Amino acid sequence: METHDELNIVTGAFGYTGKYIAQKLLSLGKKVRTLTGHPSRPNPFGDRVSAVPFNFDKPGDLIRSLRGATVLYNTYWVRFSYGCVTFDRAVENTKILIKAAEEAGMRRIVHISITNASETSPFPYFRGKGILEKAISQSGLSYAIIRPTVLFGHEDILINNIAWMLRRFPLFVIMGSGDYKVQPVFVEDVAEISIKTGQRGDDVTVDAVGPEIYSFREMIGLIAGKIGSKARIVHLRPEMALFFSKLLGYVVNDVVLTRDEIYGLMSNLLVSEKPPAGSVRLSDWLTRNADSIGMGYASELGRHYR
To answer: What is the average per-residue pLDDT within 166-182?
Structure first.
């Protein structure tokens, strides 16, 4: 069990999920340090959170940055391969981080994974997450593996950009039938689940999923209705949908959607058979935030790759 004077490490506290975990830890009076790939970016926490580089290529420095901390909250990952940033590299970097945490004498790791992660998945995102779940379970650390689905909340990318497109274009493309399921989860619920499991001592895997399940078509209709969009919903073959997403990517200078994301979504991997661990409903959150969601485009490349 943690005490208030113990140090917690959060990877990516200047990003999305990591920021909410750090905020929650600070609100509980915990000490927080972040490992980040962007140490020169403005620190939204000021002097309350110290920041050091990941130093994956300098294991000794990485170990020193972890020493004295008890729990590692790991959100480090990549959404897609881009340039020299690849899934294989992210897997190897995370293995380096796990080993460093062991050598630094840390007690526990709370690792953000994904629902239906599997070493045998045909999709690199889910396969990499599955490989890392096994590496964590075989490490000397006690662990909590948190498996969220599609996250929503302020500053999210997917839900925000769906709303952005629904506001600005007369058509919105759905891949295939749109009958495949999604179970969105509130980012602050994921942070809460992460911290609660971080304070435990047993090894646990939790599907961090919300209380509502939609078909993808239903979710698009929900978002459109909440923001008052009149966009016409059209259904296209997945490869045609990918083609149009690439065209939009050229316009916004971003990667809007990848082939693996399309087919992963259509494979019903973003839904769980387990009881919901999150409590905030997407429908309620959209009602409260209808005036702000999708007012600006959120760039994945701008946030994580540039």
So the answer is: 96
Taking each helix axis from N to C end, the angle separating 17-27 and 187-198, rounded to the nearest 10 degrees, works out to 60
248 close to 178: Cβ distance less than 8 angstroms:
no
Domains along the chain?
A: 7-151+185-208 (3.40.50.720), 152-182+212-273+280-305 (3.90.25.10)
**Single-letter amino acid, residue 293:** I
User: Would you state the structure tokens that stand for residue 221, as one six-digit string?
Assistant: 């209709």
Cα separation of 112 and 86, whole Å? 18
The arithmetic mean of pLDDT across residues 163-184, rounded, is 97
- Whole-angstrom distance, CA of residue 48 vs CA of residue 45: 6
Mean pLDDT in the chain? 95
Q: What's the confidence (pLDDT) of residue 124?
A: 95
Would the pLDDT of 38 be above 90? no
pLDDT tens by residue, 76-99: 999 988 888 899 999 999 999 999
> What local confidence, expressed as pLDDT, does residue 4 receive?
55
CA 169 to chain CA centroid, Å, is: 27
Residue-level pLDDT at 260: 93
Are 224 and 170 spatial neighbours (Cβ–Cβ below 8 Å)? no
Task: With beta carbons less than 8 A apart as the criterion, state whether 262 and 241 touch.
Answer: yes
Residue 228 has which token pair?
């008052």
Rounded (to 5) percent helix, strand, coil in the chain: 40, 20, 40
Q: In this structure, which amino acid lies at residue 301? A: L
Alpha helices (H) in the chain, listed in sequence order: 17-27, 59-66, 87-103, 124-137, 158-168, 187-198, 216-227, 238-252, 259-266, 282-289, 300
| Alpha-carbon gap, residue 92 to 118, rounded angstroms | 17
